[in-house]
């Protein structure tokens, strides 16, 4: 039993180390993706795009899109909307909704890993503590009063597992909440763009066509 507890305790710390490395890797990868959509250039693109849409300036919109150095959710959405608008303006609104959903899924990719780690590492740490306490009481029963020092060291090590679990979970939960808030901002901006496209380019084009036909 003692050997099993020792192996279990060591395994818990290995899992904690792996979880922390995985969390850092996912955080850095997602941060790179999100930063592209939150730069001053990305915000500036939105600020310049909306007036162009309201003035129904197709050429200006295409030039603005062409001048962007870095691809973002906003540039991909604008490119997609312009191409679909030329092909089939009637079904564009539904297609833009689908594109927003696709961009959201792209932003949410790998975030379930952070969510899982944030929810479960405290419990894994607690399991390590329970194993450590079992080991401590087993030592107390075997060594008696003379083993008090050994027992206290075992309990101290056991509590480290819970501390490690919380040390991983707290930053991971904060990171997950940060990304979740940014997803709402980015998808909200995409929905605003969608409405601007529909109200200005598509509606304008369809009304112009019906006027010409009349």
Automatic annotation (TrEMBL):
It comes from the Bacteria. InterPro entries: ExbB/TolQ_transport, MotA_ExbB_proton_chnl. This is TolQ transporter. Keywords: Cell membrane, Membrane, Protein transport, Transmembrane, Transmembrane helix, Transport. The gene is exbB_2. Residues 75-191 form the MotA/TolQ/ExbB proton channel domain. The chain crosses the membrane at residues 12-33, 123-143, 155-174. Coiled coil: none annotated. It is found in: Cell membrane; Membrane. It is a multi-pass membrane protein.
């Amino acid at each position: 039993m003692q050997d099993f507890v020792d192996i279990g305790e060591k395994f818990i710390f290995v899992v904690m180390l792996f979880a922390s490395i995985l969390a850092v890797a996912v955080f850095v990868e997602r941060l790179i993706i999100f930063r592209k959509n939150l730069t001053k250039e990305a915000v500036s693109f939105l600020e310049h795009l909306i007036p162009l849409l309201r003035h129904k300036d197709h050429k200006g919109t295409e030039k603005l899109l062409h001048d962007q150095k870095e691809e973002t959710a906003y540039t991909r959405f604008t490119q997609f909307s312009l191409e679909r608008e030329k092909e089939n303006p009637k079904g564009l609104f539904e297609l833009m909704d689908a594109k927003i959903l696709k961009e959201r899924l792209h932003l949410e990719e790998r975030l379930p890993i952070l969510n899982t780690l944030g929810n479960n590492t405290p419990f894994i740490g607690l399991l390590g503590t329970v194993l450590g306490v079992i080991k401590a009481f087993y030592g107390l029963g075997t060594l008696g009063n003379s083993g008090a020092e050994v027992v206290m060291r075992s309990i101290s090590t056991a509590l480290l597992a819970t501390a490690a679990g919380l040390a991983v979970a707290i930053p991971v939960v904060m990171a997950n909440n940060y990304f979740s808030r940014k997803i709402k901002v980015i998808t909200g901006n995409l929905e605003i763009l969608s409405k601007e496209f529909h109200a200005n380019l598509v509606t304008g084009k369809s009304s112009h066509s019906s006027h010409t036909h009349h």
